Recover the amino acids of this structure.
């Protein structure tokens, strides 16, 4: 797994789990590694990567009854701080294996995994639309589908991966873009086919 953090000053941090400094990070007993990329404490302590491992010791096999498959034991591994909370204030994006998982939109880091997942469930015609329009459409669709939650706009926005403030900002931007587009469509109004003014 490769985690990339791009910052506003064009700095790019790359973390590659396939390139451990030590060839056998878990003393040669590891048969499976469980990576956790933790987004739950971004504003408090930062972005963490945790690596747990499954220990396949010979002693576990000896304790297994004949005809049964031995069970590897999941062991706690190590936590790695990829970016402190202060650094994340200047982060443009975080991607995993080339796919954005956090993206700065309307001044905040948006949960792109949640956003993409919810779009795939709730929006049937979102392909090709800018994220700005998709976010507003998704928010509106969820408010219509769950009127009981619509009163708490912040909660609905979080379902979309955004804050309510960001959704409102994107709604204003979408409306402005639509007005500009309509003006562009009318730029030849008043001209006839031969190019002369009507």
């Amino acid at each position: 797994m490769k985690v990339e953090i791009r910052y506003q000053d064009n700095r790019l941090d790359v973390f590659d789990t396939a390139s451990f400094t030590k060839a056998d990070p878990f003393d040669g007993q590891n048969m499976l590694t469980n990576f956790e990329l933790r987004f739950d404490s971004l504003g408090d302590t930062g972005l963490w990567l945790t690596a747990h491992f499954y220990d396949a010791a010979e002693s576990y096999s000896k304790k297994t009854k004949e005809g049964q498959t031995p069970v590897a034991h999941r062991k706690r591994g190590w936590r790695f701080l990829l970016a402190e909370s202060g650094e994340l204030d200047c982060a443009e994006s975080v991607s995993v294996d080339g796919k954005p998982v956090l993206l700065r939109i309307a001044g905040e880091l948006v949960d792109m995994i949640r956003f993409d997942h919810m779009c795939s469930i709730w929006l049937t015609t979102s392909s090709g639309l800018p994220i700005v329009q998709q976010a507003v459409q998704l928010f509106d669709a969820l408010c219509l589908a769950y009127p009981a939650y619509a009163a708490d706009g912040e909660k609905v926005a979080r379902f979309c991966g955004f804050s309510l403030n960001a959704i409102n900002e994107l709604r204003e931007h979408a409306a402005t873009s639509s007005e500009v587009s309509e003006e562009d469509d009318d730029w030849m109004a008043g001209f006839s086919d031969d190019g002369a003014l009507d």
Remarks:
- The two ends are 63 Å apart (CA to CA).
- Helices lie at 58-63, 85-88, 112-122, 131-145, 147-150, 153-159, 164-185.
- The longest strand covers residues 73-83.
